[in-house]
Amino acid sequence: MTTTHDDVLLRVRDLSVRFGGVLAVNKVSFEVRRGEVFTLIGPNGAGKTTVFNLISRIYAPTSGSVDFDGRALSSVAPHEVAALGIARTFQNIELFEHATVLQNLLIGRHIRRRSQIWSELVFTPAVRDAERATRRKVEEVIDLLELQHYRDALVAGLPYGVRKVVELARALCIEPKLLLLDEPSSGLNVEETDDMAFWIQDIQRDLGVTILMVEHDMGLVSKVSDRVLAMSQGEVLALGSPAQVQADPAVAEAYLGTVGDVASLRRPSSIEVAV
Ligand SMILES: Nc1ncnc2c1ncn2[C@@H]1O[C@H](COP(=O)(O)OP(=O)(O)O)[C@@H](O)[C@H]1O
Ligand SMILES: [Mg+2]
Known about the structure:
Elements: E1 8-19, E2 22-33, E3 37-41, H1 48-55, E4 63-68, E5 71-72, H2 81-84, E6 86-89, H3 101-110, H4 117-122, H5 125-144, H6 160-172, E7 178-182, H7 190-207, E8 210-214, H8 218-224, E9 227-232, E10 235-240, H9 242-246, H10 249-255, H11 259-265
Parallel strand pairs: 3-8, 3-9, 6-7, 7-8
Antiparallel strand pairs: 1-2, 1-4, 4-5, 9-10
Helix pairs in contact: 3-6
């Protein structure tokens, strides 16, 4: 047992995974502190989503370890990760398209419930209490993310930007300690990306949720991140404040030749790439 007082919520140590001949993640180490927004950046194929999949236990590491809240995740099954307090959104939205927003949130919340099947069947007072708590939490999240207007709408009919917010809401409904956001701005326009930045800041500030994010829009990264880790080809390149990491020559070099990502990195006082 390594449970201590410490302010580290997630500790990743020497994490590696190999897919056939590809070392997708190679001896990656970092720590996410309670309450912070910690962001992974790096060109396509750097291994960022794979790190998320290792933390979520979708993949088992080839070597290394992940500790969450003082507990080794190596012994935790993928379906138990959410109940421990880790929620995530996906690079490509994953929602029940033919259910309403409310139904999606209730389903998301369900995995947090601990009651036994038999008590569900006889609808005991404990089940009724849990049901009430679920409704309360779901309504709170709907209010926080201003989804009232869409509550009874089918997800399939909603604009992409709204679906991104619904996915975020679903993750929040399990009351996570750690929220994993994989490219929250992908597919969003400038205005929607600004809104996303506000939601992320609200979630950090008002709910006290710790956030581990993968993101390529450096405007969003700089706005919301406390610390940034840059990766390339499975390895860590740099760790520091958003400004420090963007100013790191190794990071600039990693983005060379990846036109789309270089463009998104080019901001005033950010990296300038000679063409
Ligand atoms: N399930 C998998 N099987 C084989 N290769 C994979 C798998 N998942 C990811 N990879 C490879 O691992 C590398 C990192 O991918 P990924 O983590 O998706 O990058 P990023 O999210 O940084 O763009 C890529 O070379 C990718 O092709
Ligand atoms: Mg990815």
